[in-house]
C-alpha cells in the first residue's frame, strides 16, 4: 500500500511548483500583514496556535515558546508606544519619577524609595539606568513582569499555557490596565506565581514580593493561612461568606478610612462618588457575581463530570479557584470604597481564565471542549465591554485606535528603534 503522504522531493514537478507557490504566497501575506498591521497579524497567529493547542491536548515546548514570544511582542507594544499625556495617565507619573531621580545614586535612591512598593520602584530605577528614561525602560519593565506572569501560568498548565495567555491578552483588562498600571501588574504576576507553588514557604516569598510591588497585595498574606481542604469549599458557604464580607465592609470600611485616611484618599473617594473616573461600582458587582457564577458552575460541572480527575488537575485548578474566591471576598469587603476595591477587581480575570481553560481542557470531546471554552470566553469579553464601554476609562488607558492601525515603521519610531524621538 502506497503512503498517501509523500515528501516534497517525491512530488511531480508541477505539484512541487504549485506547493512552492502556495508557501511563497503565504509568506508574502504574512510579511505584508506584519508590515502594515503587526498587532492584528500577531494576534491572529497567536490565536491559531492557541486553538491548535486546545484541540491537541498535549504540551508542546516549541509552540508554547512561539506563542509566548508573539504575545510578549503584542503586549509590550500597547505600553511602549503609548504617548505620554498629562491627564489621567499612570505612565506619566512613572516617567516623571524616572526623570526626577535619574541622577540619584543607587544608595540615595534606596533611601528615597525604601517603603511601600519598593520592588516596583527599584525596577523602574534599574530599567531607566539600563535603557534610558523613556519607552525602552517601560518596555523592559513590562517584559520582566509579563515573563513572570507567563512562568506562573506555565507552571499551572503546560498543556494550555498558550490558550490561557492568549485569552488574557485579548481582554481589555489586560491591554488597558495590566499594560498601564505597571506596579499592580507586577504584583499580579507574583500572585499567579504564588498560586502555582505547592510549598508554603515559596508561596509566602511570592506574596511578599507582590506586597512590596503594590501595597494592595498585603491583604493576600492571610491567604497562606487557609487550609488545603478549603480548595473544595462548597458554593453555598462561599455565597454566605461574600454576603458577610459585603455587609461587614459597608459598616467597617468607612470607619477604617476615617481612622487611617488622608487628604489623598478623601479626594479619591470624592472622585469615585461624583463619577469623575467613569466607574460604576454596581456594574463591577454585577460582573463579579457573573464571574462567580461561571467559576462555580464549572466547579460543580467538574465535580460531577470528572469522577476520577488527575491529582495534578485537582491541586492546580482548585488552588486557582480558591485564590479567585479569596480575591472576591476582599473585593466585597472593600466595595464601599472603590479606590481600594478596584485593586481586587483588577486581579480577577486571570484566575477566571485559568480555571475556565483547565476545566474545559479536561473534556475528552474536542467539539464540547472548544464550544464550552468559546462560550465562557464570550461571557468575559461581553462583561468587560459592558464595564468599560459606558465610562471614559478606556480613553485614559490606551490609544486603542493607534494600536490597531499603526504600521511596523510607526511602531519602531515610537519605540525609539528607528532614530525618531517620541
UniProtKB/TrEMBL annotation:
It comes from Serratia marcescens. It holds the Pfam family EpsG. Signal peptide: none annotated. InterPro entries: EpsG-like. The lineage of its organism: Bacteria, Pseudomonadati, Pseudomonadota, Gammaproteobacteria, Enterobacterales. The chain crosses the membrane at residues 23-55, 62-81, 136-154, 160-182, 203-226, 238-258, 313-332, 344-363, 370-387. The keyword Membrane applies. This is Orf39. Keywords: Membrane, Transmembrane, Transmembrane helix.
Amino acid at each position: 500500500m502506497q503512503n498517501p503522504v509523500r515528501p516534497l522531493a517525491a512530488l511531480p514537478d508541477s505539484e512541487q511548483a504549485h506547493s512552492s507557490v502556495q508557501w511563497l504566497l503565504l509568506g508574502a501575506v504574512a510579511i505584508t500583514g506584519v508590515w502594515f498591521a503587526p498587532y492584528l497579524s500577531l494576534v491572529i497567529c497567536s490565536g491559531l496556535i492557541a486553538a491548535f493547542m486546545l484541540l491537541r491536548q498535549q504540551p508542546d515546548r516549541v509552540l508554547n515558546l512561539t506563542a509566548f514570544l508573539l504575545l510578549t511582542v503584542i503586549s509590550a507594544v500597547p505600553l511602549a508606544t503609548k504617548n505620554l499625556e498629562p491627564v489621567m495617565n499612570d505612565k506619566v507619573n512613572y516617567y516623571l519619577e524616572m526623570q526626577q531621580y535619574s541622577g540619584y545614586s543607587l544608595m540615595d535612591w534606596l533611601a528615597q524609595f525604601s517603603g511601600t512598593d519598593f520592588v516596583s520602584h527599584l525596577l523602574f530605577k534599574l530599567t531607566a539606568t539600563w535603557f534610558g528614561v523613556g519607552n525602552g525602560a517601560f518596555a523592559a519593565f513590562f517584559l520582566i513582569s509579563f515573563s513572570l506572569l507567563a512562568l506562573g501560568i506555565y507552571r499551572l498548565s503546560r498543556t494550555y499555557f498558550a490558550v490561557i495567555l492568549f485569552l488574557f491578552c485579548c481582554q481589555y483588562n489586560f491591554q488597558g490596565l495590566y499594560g498601564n498600571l505597571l506596579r499592580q501588574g507586577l504584583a499580579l504576576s507574583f500572585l499567579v506565581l504564588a498560586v502555582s507553588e505547592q510549598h508554603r514557604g515559596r508561596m509566602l516569598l511570592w506574596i511578599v514580593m507582590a506586597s512590596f510591588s503594590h501595597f494592595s497585595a498585603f491583604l493576600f498574606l492571610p491567604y497562606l493561612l487557609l487550609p488545603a481542604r478549603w480548595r473544595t469549599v462548597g458554593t453555598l458557604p462561599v455565597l454566605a461568606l461574600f454576603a458577610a464580607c459585603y455587609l461587614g465592609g459597608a459598616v467597617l470600611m468607612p470607619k477604617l478610612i476615617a481612622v487611617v485616611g488622608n487628604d489623598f484618599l478623601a479626594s479619591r473617594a470624592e472622585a469615585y462618588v461624583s463619577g469623575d473616573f467613569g466607574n460604576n461600582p454596581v456594574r463591577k458587582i454585577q460582573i463579579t457575581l457573573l464571574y462567580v457564577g461561571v467559576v462555580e458552575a464549572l466547579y460543580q460541572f467538574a465535580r460531577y463530570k470528572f469522577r476520577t480527575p488527575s491529582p495534578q488537575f485537582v491541586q492546580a485548578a482548585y488552588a486557582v479557584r480558591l485564590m479567585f474566591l479569596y480575591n472576591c471576598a476582599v473585593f466585597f469587603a472593600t466595595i464601599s470604597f472603590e479606590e481600594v476595591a478596584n485593586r481586587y477587581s483588577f486581579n480577577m480575570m486571570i484566575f477566571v481564565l485559568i480555571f475556565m481553560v483547565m476545566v474545559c481542557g479536561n473534556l475528552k470531546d474536542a467539539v464540547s471542549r472548544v464550544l464550552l471554552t468559546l462560550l465562557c470566553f464570550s461571557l468575559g469579553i461581553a462583561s468587560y465591554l459592558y464595564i468599560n464601554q459606558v465610562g471614559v476609562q478606556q480613553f485614559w488607558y490606551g490609544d486603542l485606535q493607534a494600536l490597531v492601525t499603526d504600521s511596523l515603521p510607526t511602531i519602531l519610531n515610537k519605540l525609539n528603534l528607528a532614530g525618531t524621538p517620541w
